[in-house]
User: Fold this.
Amino acid sequence: MIRFLAAALLISAPAFAQVDFSGGWSPLYHEDLPDRIPGPELGDYLGLPLNDAARLRADSYDADRISVVPEYECRPHSSDYSMRGLANMHVDAIRDPVTQRVIAFHTRMNFQEMERTIWLDGRPHPSDYAPHTWAGFSTGTWEDNMLDVYTTHLKESYLKRNGVPRSDKATFTEHWVRHGNYLTVATIVTDPVFMTEPLVRTQTWIFDPSQVIGRDICETAAEVPKAADYVPNHLPGTNPFLHEVADWYGLPYEATRGGAETLYPEYRKKMEKPEHPRQQCERYCSCGAEGYVCLDPTAPPPKKQ
Amino acid sequence: MTHEMRLTILLASSLTLWLGRASSQPQNFDSVQIHVEPVQHNIYMLVGAGGNTTVQVGSEGVLLVDTQFAPLAPKLMAEIRKLSPGPLRYIINTHMHPDHVGGNAAIAKLAGADPALPLKIIAHENVLNRLTETVPGQPRFPEEGLPIDEYATPTKNLHFNGEAIIIYHEPNAHTDGDSVVLFRGSDVISAGDIFTPGGYPFIDIDHGGSVQGEILALNHILQMTVPAKTQEGGTYVIPGHGRICDDADVVEFRDMVVIVRDRVRDMIQKGMTLDQVKAARPTRDYDTEYVTSASFVTADRFVEAVYKSLSHATEHGGSSR
Assistant:
């Protein structure tokens, strides 16, 4: 009998999925909160391993583009960025109807109704000539209880919402780890076009079984008259906003320009002092503290009880 | 082989085989394999060594957009026959470069002639004019491959295999004879070399191309593309070279051309010469994306085309669609 039960358990055990990520998940913003909630400041490239091309591309970015050019209005985050964006996530396990094995995880986020499938059934990635998507094409393999995900076929998008580009030649690897009701996803983006070394970021989620994700329907509309051949951009050397982040936060301007060196703690020792150091927090000081939201950058810090 | 390498080979071949027809070293096509990529409904993209070939198949037969190089015709036809045994009824050429028209005659011959179901080769009249130009010391373009069903109007319409097919002339873009083909039922656009993701556009100034026309043509493509949910999919776009794209990919490419145009125009207005503009490297943030060490359309070549387009427009009052 015991032998029979053991055999039955072996047969019924999922051969592919080692951990079940199914259900609702809410993002926790304790990491990089100002960068994620109100969004990154223009000209803030600190901690990004950018090359010169990416830096100039970002310098040229004019945020008017997302309101003036209708094609940008309803774009979702790409899947490498959406894991750290402002959205709840629902994960479904997709089972093979015959074997009942989990052959994929399907994720849905409420921002722009972004959907994504992570295939676990060993299927190959599409050809070099297949279309690219915001989600890309993701396949997963298990490393003990950690899900390793590899994604290709991404559309050109951004590393940050301040115009820092990420090319369609980029790929990324993720490591999904569940600890009880917490999910941590480490994202490692490699971009031969715009980065000199991979960018590693982590995001944490909390299980939220009562979560209901509604619709987020977006339709483009031309709301600002413009010439057909007009794309908002700053000519090289003319962007007036690039020093703001250094001035506001009391940082050396060179540090805000990013580069691989600025990724590492050793850079603090080398970093020059700002021209106008800040004595106290002046911007987004209440961000994330005691439930404060971050929509007003000049809101004072919350008073201590 | 990467998109960029293919683009390089085909553009180099285009120039050597076409601009200097007889003097070129023949490219070895023996190792080239034809890749068939399904696009949408009954439309396929065939990738070889020349420009992409679009194939539409159905109950009435086969329609091709562009035919790559002549030596690839047997391989192309072999793949086409796997998709449909029907008669080849139409070839549409998006422009006059040999990596897009080179296989016309050979494919027509392989397809066989049926007087009841004749093959028509369609292109804008400027393509026919270019292909029939006499170039001293150069071989003539094979007569049986000429697009003698040329059109001289802004559009030409067909109805084939159950869908409307609209051919749009895009004046003075990549060349002066560019056509964009809309498969209205399948919701697919074949864009020719107006759109070459992964590589700067080859604005062939000597054959009537201009950056202004290029931008107008890209905007016209964007008028026709309707993305599906989350601004992707919906209308698919087959580029002259490279992977299958959609509206968002064309937007990125259009934005690149517009922004480079803006920079070069600003430098011209400041009185900078072409050499000074090249030295300022106005494309330096796009080069890592659009240029490889093997690229034919280098940053300098692209900048020069933009500069000359704008300088010519200033002298002659610009161009219009």
Notes: The mean pLDDT of chain B is 91.
